[in-house]
Amino acid sequence: MTPTGTDQRAHPLVRRLRRVAGLPSGDAPGEAGARVSHLHRVEQEAAGLDPDETRQLRSVRRFGACGTVLMAAGALGAGAQPVLQNPVYGHRVIGLLSRMPTVALTVAMTGTAMLVIAWLLLGRLAVGRLREGNTPRRLSRSQMDRTMLLWMLPLLVAPPMFSKDVYSYLAQSEITARGMDPYSLGPAQALGVDNVLTRSVPTIWRDTPAPYEPLFLWLGKVIGAMSGDNVVVGVLLHRLLEVGGVCLIIWALPRLAKRCGIAPVTSLWLGAANPLVFLHLIAGIHNEALMIGLMVAGLEICLRAVYDTDPFGMRGWLLLLAGAGVIVASSAIKIPSIMALGFVGVAFARRRGPGMRNVVWVAALLGALAVAGQALFAWATGLGFGWVATLGTASEVRSWMSITTLLGMGTGGTGMLLGLGNHTTAVLAIMKPIAFVLVALGVLRMLIATHSGRIHPVGGLGVSLAILVILFPVVHPWYLLWALVPLAAWATTPAFRVPAVAVSAIVCLVGPTPNGGEYPPFVIVEAALAALLTIVVIRQATRRRIEWTRRQPGRTATKPATYAGKS
Fold this sequence. Notes:
Layout: H1 12-21, H2 51-78, H3 101-126, H4 141-156, H5 165-177, H6 187-191, H7 214-227, H8 231-259, H9 264-271, H10 275-283, H11 288-308, H12 314-331, H13 339-352, H14 356-381, H15 403-417, H16 424-451, H17 457-471, H18 480-488, H19 494-510, H20 521-542
Helix pairs in contact: 2-3, 2-4, 3-9, 3-19, 3-20, 5-7, 7-8, 8-9, 8-10, 8-11, 9-18, 11-12, 11-13, 12-14, 13-14, 13-16, 13-17, 15-16, 16-17, 17-18
Keywords: Glycosyltransferase, Membrane, Transferase, Transmembrane, Transmembrane helix
Subcellular location: Membrane
Pfam families: MptA_B_family
C-alpha cells in the first residue's frame, strides 16, 4: 500500500480516471493531486525595503497617482457622462475637455497607461524576482495600503469611466422604488423614454429587465431614496457602495493569503491594487466589487470556523453560519459567488471526517441555508424570484473575450465563407449548454480535489471561477476579477502570475473606451499615438528617478521562515 492508501497495482486506466476526477491515484508518495495544485507554493518571508528601494517606491507611487489624476481629468471630457444633468456642461474651465474629445481621450489613455506601468513597477517591490532561488525584499503592508489609497482618491470624485452600467443601476432601482417589477419591465417601459434616469441608460438596455439579484436592487432603492432624481449624487453614492466592496477585498485578501502561506502584500498587489480594480470597480462603478468583497469576506470567516476553532463548538458554528450568511448575501448581489459555499462545505465535511455521509450532511445544511437566505432576501425586498428569468440577459451581448462566443462566431463565419449560410446564432445556442456542462464538470472536479485534501479551498474556488469565466458566454473585463481575487491569495508560481499580470495589463490598455461607448476609429488612433508619444517623453524625463529596467539582484533577505497558514 502507498502512503495514500491506493493500490499501486491498480490498472493504469483506473489510476488515470482517479487523477481526472481529482482523487489520489497513488502514482507517487505525497502526490500533490490535481495538476492545478502546482500553481501554489508557500512563499518565504522577506525583509523590508532598503532606503534605495523606498525612494523607488515613492517615485512609483507618485507616478501612479499622476496617472489616476490624468484619468480623472480626462473623464471630464471622455468619461461616461450622463445625458442630462452633466455637471461639466456649459462650464468654461472644467467643461473645456468635453469640447475637445481627442485631447480628452488622449489624457485619459495616458493616465491609464501610467497607472498600468506604475502597477507593473510596483510588482518588483511586492513580488520580487519570479524565478526561484531568490528571496526579495518586499514593501510593508502600510506602504501598500498608502499606495492604493493615493491611487484611489482621484477616481472617487471622477465621472464614471469605461461603462455606463451605473445609469442602469439608477433606473432599475427607481423602478423598484415605485413599486413596479424590475424583472419584467425595462427603464423605458416603467419610467418613460424621457425620464431623466432613462435618458442616460444605453439604448441596448432601455427595454431590458434588471439582471441583478434582489439585495442589490434594494440597496439601489435606498440610494435612490437619498438621491432622488439627482444623477450625480446617485452615481457618487453607488461608487461609495462599491468602494465598500473593495475595502472588504482589502480586508479579506491578505488574511486568506496568509492562511495559504502567501505573502499578504503580494496578494494585495495582484488582487486589490490591480488596475482592473481601479478602472472597472472604482472608476467603472460595477457591482462586482460588492459581490467579490462579500464573497471573500464570508470565505475568510467560514475558514476561521473550519481551521482556527473547534468547528463543532458554539463559536465554530456561529462563525460558520455567519460566514455562510455573508456568502449568501454576496450571491444576492450576483449569483456566481454562491460557488464559494460549496468549497466551504467540502472543507467542513473533510474536517468532520471521511465518508460520504459527512459530505451529504454538510451539503444539505448549507444548501438549506442558501435556499433560506435567497428566500429571505426575496421576501424582505418584495422582489421575489423574478431574477431567475433574467439571468441570461447579459448573453445578448456577443463578447470578444468569451472563448465559447468566439468559437461560435468563428464557426458561423466559416459557414458564411463556404456559402452554407449564417448559422452563427444556432451554433452559439449549441455552444452555450456545452460550455455549462464543462463548467459543471470542472467545478465538480475541484470540489472532489478539495475534499480529498489535494487543493486548498481558496485555490479550488479560484480555479472553479476561472473555468466559469473562461467558458462564460459573455466576459467583460471586470469579470476576470471573479477568479483573479481568490487566486491572488493562493496561486504563486510564474505559470499563473505571468499570464495573470499580462492579461490584466493588456485588457486595461485595449479594453472599453473611457466613455463606455464608441469613438470614431481615427479619434482612437490619434489619441493612442499621442498617448504613446507622451509616455515616451515621460519615460525619458523620469529615467533618473524611476528604475524602468531591472537592475542586478541585490541583497537577499535573511529570514528563512514561511507564512505558515492553516490548511
